[in-house]
Specification:
This protein has 441 residues and is an alpha+beta fold. The chain has 11 helices and 18 strands. Strands 11, 12, 13, 14, 15, 16, 17 and 18 form an 8-stranded antiparallel β-sheet that branches. The protein has a 6-stranded antiparallel β-sheet with strand order 1-10-9-4-3-2, with no helix packed on it. The radius of gyration is 23 Å and the shape is globular. 43% of the residues are buried. The mean pLDDT is 94. Bound molecules: FE2/S2 (inorganic) cluster and fe (ii) ion. The site of FE2/S2 (inorganic) cluster has 9 residues, from loops.
Length: 441
Amino acid sequence: MTTAIDSVELTRVGPGTVMGQLMREYWILALMCSELARGGAPLRLMLLGEKLIAFRDSTGRVGVMDHRCPHRCASLFLGRNEEGGIRCIYHGWKFDVSGKCLDMPNVLRHQDFKHKVKAKAKAYRAVERAGMVWVYMGSRAKAPSLPAFEILDVPDDEVGVSLIQRDCNYLQALEGDIDTSHFGFLHAGHIDPDDLGEDDPIQHTVAIRAPEYHIADTAWGTTYAGYRGAGPGRTSWRFGNFLFPFWTQVPNGEFGRHLQVRGWVPLDDEHTMYCVLWWKRGVSAMTQQAPAFKDGAPIGGMGRRNNFLPNTTDWLGRWRLAANASNDWGMNRAAQHDNMIYSGIDSIHLQDQAVTESMGAILDHTLEHLAPSDQMITRTRRRLLMAARALRDNRALPPGVENVEVFRDARGGYFVSDDRSGWRDAYAEQLAVASRPPPRV
Ligand code: FES
Ligand SMILES: [Fe+2]
């Protein structure tokens, strides 16, 4: 059970909160590199409840800093992106990407030196990898390394990236990814297994909609294996992971080639940026085809296309879907009634978006009635809370901050094995023969 105190500590992410402090120990994925043009307009960026700006200076370096100018707090979003830094339009003070004050033109030259030192803008360190800008918002003098996700070993041009904003707290959004039993209902409740081809990857999921589970704490967070019988002597496995502090891996691809991580980056307590990084070469032909029944007819509601509203300059104006709470996520009652689409909502991502946003901006956990099918969720909450409290109470660093290698063996995906293997052996055997990029040095 999640108590009211647990609920608050799990969901609040601003400066000084228990979970906010935990998250600030890690690199946070913030935006696409392509969102910042060299010397171009700064961008408003909300991260962990902090209002920031991001910009790319005239030499190509990325700056991420508090949007308030340290002089009299006018927003640097309005600033002029000039040679080597951003200049506040109020009194002309200029800052480089590290926050150092370069110029203070409204102060007499002989008076400006010590003020310049004091007027450092609050800037965070930023790096670019896999087409994304990552930000370190922690306080350590030496930032940790990026997490050793397998996908970050892949050359940047082989990594696919996508961002989608979700209008709810990060935790309920993330938990959709580790709540495996919803698949057979929300996404596939209208599918009769007899209508699917024999090797269709969702065959086992829809044949047995209440799977059994193994769940465990792992070095990177938590892991589940959902399993079902798959004919004589065979077991169908679906492995998924939670990785500190807000990442998941889900079994929506073949285990052997499914390099992927999905991040649920808290923008503030009530908004989250979903980000996914995947290996383009690892996507199988099967996954790329439009899902179809064995007679060739398309399966309703399994679309992967999402329509976006135009990005705006608002703090929360980036990567929003056109289908949202204001239009009931495009609900089609006829499709729902006729069982063409179980949910009535067309697109897998949108189905997840609708149910998690429909819980309210921050789910009141005291209203839940968790069942045995929710063990992965309860264990993950406990793992997060214990790590966050250990950091707060004992300064114990959470998993994967210094020992970033713990992430490398995390993989999600589906496969069928013979019954002789236990779940951990089955995972290790599949990983041993999986496609893996060599680690970057
Ligand atoms: S407020 Fe920015 S220079 Fe004065
Ligand atoms: Fe889902």
